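Recall that a protein's primary structure is simply its ordered list of amino acids. Everything else, from secondary elements to tertiary packing, is in principle encoded there. The following example makes that idea concrete.
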Amino acid sequence: MSREALQDFLRAIEHHQGLRRDAARCSDDIELLALAQRHGFDVIQRDLRDDAQESAITRWFKTSRIQRSFQSPPSQSRPS
């Protein structure tokens, strides 16, 4: 549930100017987590770490030469 809270918090930052301004003032993860919690989002340090790791993996797959081998082939429609 905590990762969902991180996604909700990021969406809130995108949509609320005041929250976006407050987030921009945060100088480190601890301040950002405190801001999230003050606004009712149950975000923890592990969520930030997991999100960073997932983002790095996603970027790697987007640039990898083996990317296509993990994609499903497009479905082919056959006329009846």
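The first helix runs from residue 2 to 15. The chain has four helices and no strands.
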